[in-house]
TrEMBL record:
GO CC annotations, alphabetized: membrane
Keyword Cell membrane: no
InterPro entries (alphabetical): AbrB_dup, AbrB_fam
Alphabetical UniProt keywords: Membrane, Transmembrane, Transmembrane helix
UniProt keyword DNA-binding present: no
Originating species: Cereibacter ovatus
Protein name: Aminopeptidase
Length: 350
């Protein structure tokens, strides 16, 4: 029986991703390790290149080893001051409940009017959160599975690419590159390592048992936060480990381009680009008034509303050294609200 993946192919894919990340860092590009690895592996996968005769591949099960690292780092940001500040976030959570339906409907109109997609494909392709759940719901509703997967996948890719580029344009310098990846500067002690490893393993199990959205990350976030708030742990994963995590996640995202139908890709890319530009402009419009009401920086609110992936957007927040707990909390809410809205409205209009 053929193995689920080729170990040598995986090693070569990660090496290609690392090379792309280092080149991007040398060029001073925004969020270089994540975007550089994504571009290098994505280009190789899209053009069906075979480094040393091996296919480009990175099994999605690799997330089980990478994403909890982000959760553990975010948990270290929980402090009594952050907990005390959380009640002030209610205006932005209320605004998120307005933003998500507007972004969803706007995307639906773009896909229907400009792309001529079927109603179920356009509706679930425009869901601004919950890739797996949206694809499953769309499949049940009769959506085109290839186009639907492309639209949802490109939503993640384009948001991850456009958001750091937008910050670079606003600030005038590359973000997430000069300072290197966020993380602990000092080596972790053995007690902290043991506590965080236990929190990561138990957190994944707990998140899956409780069916938390994005359980691979949210479970470790919860237990890491508990460990830090109770004094069981003081440190967070070091910067070099966060850097490896960026390369791994970027390589996994890039490897998803393998096997995608070439004929459908240009149409889906054009529509997704329009959808993402519209959603990010809308998020920027919400960011200014919400920042005044919630006491958060405009950049943090914008990042909290940008419809990327939970792990990826939290990783961007870590790399940009901004309100990572605030951003992560809003993206957890975004996934839950997006899927709920998509399901309930489709029952009425479908």
């Amino acid at each position: 029986m053929r193995p689920h993946f080729d170990p040598l192919g995986l090693c070569l894919t990660l090496a290609l991703g690392a090379a792309g990340g280092l080149v991007a860092r040398a060029l001073g590009l925004p969020l270089p390790l994540l975007l550089g690895s994504l571009c290098a592996v994505g280009a190789a996968a899209a053009f069906r290149l075979r480094p040393f005769g091996r296919p480009v591949e990175a099994p999605q099960g690799l997330r089980l080893f990478l994403v909890p690292v982000i959760g553990l780092a975010i948990g270290g940001a929980f402090t009594p001051d952050v907990i005390a500040e959380a009640p002030r976030w209610w205006p932005s959570l209320v605004a998120l409940c307005l933003f998500l339906p507007l972004a969803h409907i706007l995307g639906y109109l773009i896909f229907r009017r400009l792309g001529g997609l079927s109603r179920p494909t356009a509706w679930f392709g425009a869901t601004p959160g919950g890739l797996i759940e949206s694809v499953a719901l769309g499949d049940e509703a009769g959506a085109d599975p290839q186009i639907l997967v492309l639209l949802q996948f490109l939503r993640l890719i384009l948001t991850i690419a456009l958001v750091p580029a937008g910050f670079t344009w606003l600030t005038g310098h590359a973000v997430g590159s000069a300072a290197g990846p966020a993380g602990a500067a000092d080596p972790l002690g053995v007690p902290d390592m043991l506590v965080l490893a236990a929190a990561g393993i138990a957190g994944v199990w707990l998140g899956r048992s409780l069916r938390l959205p994005g359980h691979v990350m949210t479970g470790p976030v919860a237990l890491s936060a508990l460990a830090h708030l109770t004094g069981l742990a003081d440190g967070v994963p070091p910067g070099w480990l966060i850097g490896i995590t960026q390369i791994g996640i970027g390589s996994m995202l890039g490897a998803r381009f393998a096997g995608l139908p070439r004929g459908a890709l240009p149409l889906a890319a054009r529509l997704s680009a329009l959808n993402m530009l519209a959603a990010l402009v809308l998020a920027f419009g919400f960011a200014w008034p919400v920042a005044e009401l919630s006491g958060q920086p405009v950049a943090a609110v914008f990042l909290a509303f940008a419809p990327g992936g939970l792990a990826e957007m939290s990783l961007i927040a870590l790399s940009l050294h901004m309100s990572v707990v605030y951003v992560t909390a809003h993206h957890i809410a975004r996934i839950m609200l997006s899927v709920t809205f998509a399901r309930l409205v489709w029952r009425r209009i479908g």
